[in-house]
Amino acid sequence: VKVKIPFGNKYLDAIFSVPEKKSTYGVILTHGAGGDMNFPHLVSLATYLASHGVLSLRFTCKGLNIAYRTKAFKTVVEYLKLSDDYKLPGVFLAGRSMGSRAAASVIRQLSQDDNDDDFIQGLVCISYPLHRPKLQSKLRDEDLLSIRCPVLFVSGSADEMCEQQLLEGVVSKMRAPKKIHWIDKANHGMAVKGRTTDDVMEEINAHVFSWLRENIELEHK
Q1: Longest CA–CA separation in the chain, Å
Q2: How many structural domains compose the chain?
Q3: Helix or strand or coil: residue 55?
Q4: Which of 12, 134, 192, 206 has its CA 20 to 30 A from that of 115?
Q5: Which domain holds residue 156?
Q6: What CATH number is associated with residue 115?
Q7: pTM tops 0.90, yes or no
Q8: pLDDT digits (tens), the chain, 221 positions
């Protein structure tokens, strides 16, 4: 289902992947610095989640300014929260690369607001860009360290923007419940020599879904 989400004097293009049965939870997904909501990894994940009963909303926000991207993501969260078509008790935010930075930034901002009402259940970071290539001294970890909701990182062990040891160090300092799933030998774009994109995406999709399910079940206990 294609929708246009009002954003200032513009609109954000977005697509709902709707499960056959009414879903209780949703996931909002966005892309990295390049690409858009039709980036194959996002389409693959959204389709997989919808086929397993989780509503997915993926959107496009061009622009390389992180504050702008965060604002757009926040607008989409509000849109879904107020949606009459899909009344959801909670949502998980997910992003690829820069999109995961924007998602983390939204969660940090919303948790600082007084009206934080548990609508956001967790965060999925695919290829989180912890640092620029070859610039390991400047870590983008401030949002991560202030988050309290569950966080899943899916990163390639050969990601040039997220050195394994550095991410493990940041994660050990995080107060939130967290997990890292390493895709062996994958780079920042999740390419692995000797494996097809579909094969890698199957691993990512299944892992994201099982983590979501775990966290939804924990919530219901």
Answers
A1: 49
A2: 1
A3: strand
A4: 12
A5: 2-220
A6: 3.40.50.1820
A7: yes
A8: 999 999 989 999 999 999 988 777 899 999 999 889 999 999 999 999 999 999 999 999 988 889 999 999 999 999 999 988 888 888 999 999 999 999 999 999 888 775 556 889 999 999 999 999 988 889 999 999 999 999 999 999 999 999 999 999 999 999 999 999 999 999 999 999 999 999 999 999 999 999 999 998 766 54
